[in-house]
Design a protein that fits this description.
Mean pLDDT of chain A: 89
CATH superfamily of one domain in chain B: Cytochrome Bc1 Complex, Chain C
Distance between the termini of chain A: 17 Å
Number of strands of chain B: 1
Oligomer: heterodimer
Strand content of chain A: under 5%
Structural class of chain A: mainly alpha
Helix content of chain A: 40-55%
Distance between the termini of chain B: 34 Å
Number of helices of chain A: 17
Largest sheet of chain B: none
Largest interface: A-B, 112 and 111 residues
CATH topology of one domain in chain B: Cytochrome Bc1 Complex, Chain C
Structural class of chain B: mainly alpha
Order of helices and strands of chain B: HHEHHHHHHH
């Protein structure tokens, strides 16, 4: 007897058994042909389009191309005002990048697993690694012995001299070749510390100094990448390649290549309210994506989602031949 | 030979019972399997084979090789395009299976294993992108860290640690993807491909029973 609508239980039961006709089929041959076809497709795409490989930035290249940006960033690391210096877990006890939802503070609960002390790790310890230079050692000692207020005065004066705030009457620092020369002011020992750090960075020494740990072999780039991310070099290159967050971010690839296009839904949420203006955007987006992923996995058990294939009857196209044979 | 049923014999017999050879590698398929949508599953597997092959070549020479040799760059390109094809085929396969309501008839585990394979594949591809050792990996890693850190995942999955990401990419996640895809294929073989959704005008039985003029499973085999 014909009916208008089947229940899910009926559909399930009907799909458990198939007593109908079979046709000869060679699965192994099909797979072998598929491998050849896909291999040929990948080969053709390789021949015509190759693959992108933009050289990585280094602290040396950044500090040589953007010396003022480098010393501004280094000053913010020294006085603890940079993004990384005040980040919070898993790097330090800061609060600048800590996110939570309601009473759930996952970021803080998991603690500090990759410790970072920005003033020491990014500035003072690398400066101490420079051999000789009694004047520099004296400058570091002077800085460390000063009161926090005095330190802040020096770093603020220096930062303002290198990159004057909008509307400020402070004359901007002179950038001469690879040097940054702030116009006279009270910078204490900071001017010497920064010019020494700039020289170290431009020589490539800071790249190595930030990788140094207790052993010879290195694979962890956490510290150099955090420092570079605080500066303007990576973001300037990313903007030129349309990789910024408001340009749909990391789903894109450098050049005109398809990147991780399967992340479109993840990056989509960052473009719309309330996510694009929330201080907890990352956590909110990942929570939404986590919930959607779980729903995706559990579609067979979700009443509305599992009914969509019946409401949008694409199966009539997919199995059209089969249905026609039964109608006849 | 000893006639005792030792553990090995029991395991073998359980395996054969669960998956008889003719079910594991059948030489016939239901007559309703006659749409282009069915090829996207096998195309996805084929792309995975090309990914593993090209990735193995890259792995044999180490992570920096492809930056300074033409042959290395060639295999990196094959790897990249195979990944793009893999996701392209898999997404079409996924939408196809969705609109076929392919979880019917006790096939929910098949859907779930496929869905998790898709999600783990995204993670595997992501760790590849941050293991490239170029500007792209620097940018993706420094951007992605904030999202992962906000959930606490960053405490033990550090995208700025190349060594950790590389290990995930060349060993841990491929093992998981291959295991999941293998389980998915075995589940498909065990349950068979899902029969067509019954049409109201044809009734429930019409789609799963024999009609005149077609061969049976036995005669196809």
């Amino acid at each position: 007897m014909k009916r208008k609508r089947f229940t899910n239980a009926e559909l399930n039961e009907a799909a458990r058994h198939y007593d109908g006709p079979y046709k000869p089929y060679d699965l192994v041959k099909e797979l072998c042909i598929a491998i050849v076809v896909v291999g040929a497709l990948a080969l053709l795409l390789t021949i015509f389009f190759s693959s992108p490989d933009e050289k990585p930035s280094t602290i040396a290249s950044w500090s040589r191309q953007m010396p003022a940006d480098f010393v501004t960033t280094a000053t913010s690391e020294l006085d603890g005002s940079s993004f990384s210096a005040d980040y919070g877990p898993p790097y330090n006890n800061g609060t600048g990048a800590v996110q939570h939802e309601w009473f759930i503070h996952l970021q803080q609960w998991f603690g500090i697993s990759h410790p970072l002390n920005a003033p020491l790790d990014f500035v003072i310890d690398p400066l101490r690694s420079i051999p000789g230079q009694p004047g520099l050692r004296s400058a570091i000692a002077t800085y460390e012995a000063a009161t926090p207020k005095m330190q802040s005065t020096w770093t603020t004066n220096y930062a303002n001299a290198v990159a004057p705030p909008a509307g400020s009457k402070i004359p901007p620092a002179k950038v001469s070749g690879l040097r940054v020369i702030p116009v006279g002011g009270d910078y204490g020992p900071v001017a010497l510390m920064m010019s020494s750090l700039l020289s170290l960075a431009q020589s490539g020494g800071l790249d190595g100094a930030l990788l140094t740990s207790s052993q010879f072999y290195q694979t962890d780039y956490t510290k150099p990448l955090l420092l570079m991310a605080d500066g303007g070099d990576l973001s300037a290159r990313a903007q030129a390649e349309n990789l910024l967050g408001d340009q749909w971010g990391m789903m894109n690839e450098t050049g005109s290549y398809p990147g991780q296009v399967w992340l479109w839904l993840y990056t989509f949420w960052y473009q719309i309210a309330p996510f694009n203006s929330s201080a907890n955007a990352d956590l909110l987006v990942l929570t939404v994506m986590g919930a959607m992923s779980l729903a995706f996995i559990l579609i067979p058990f979700l009443p509305i989602a599992r009914d969509i294939p019946r409401w949008i009857p694409l199966h009539r196209v997919i199995w059209s031949e089969h249905y026609r044979s039964h109608e006849s | 030979m000893s006639g005792g049923r030792n553990w090995t014999v029991r395991l073998r017999e359980a395996g054969v019972r669960a998956m008889p050879p003719e079910r594991l590698l059948p030489d016939g398929q239901p007559a309703y399997m006659s749409s282009w949508i069915y090829i996207f599953g096998v195309l996805t597997i084929a792309a995975l084979v090309v990914i593993i092959f090209s990735g193995t070549i890259l792995g044999l020479k180490g992570p920096a090789w492809w930056h300074y040799t033409g042959v290395g760059h060639f295999f990196n390109s094959i790897h990249l395009w195979a990944v793009e094809l893999f996701f392209f085929f898999m997404v079409i396969h996924l939408w196809g299976k969705f609109f076929m309501a392919s979880w019917r008839g006790g096939r929910a585990r098949t859907w779930i294993s496929g869905a998790i394979s898709f999600l783990i594949s995204i993670a595997a591809a992501f760790t590849g992108y941050v293991s490239q050792q170029n500007f792209d990996s620097q940018w993706i890693a420094t951007q992605a860290k904030d999202g992962l850190n906000s959930t606490g995942i960053g405490a033990f999955f550090n995208v700025l640690n190349f060594g950790q990401m590389y290990t995930y990419h060349v060993l841990l996640l491929p093992v998981v993807v291959i295991a999941l895809v293998s389980a998915h294929i075995l589940l498909v073989r065990r349950s068979g491909i899902v029969p067509p959704l019954p049409l109201p005008e044809l009734g429930l039985d019409a789609t799963v029973s024999e009609h005149a003029g077609a061969s049976t499973a036995e005669s196809a085999a």
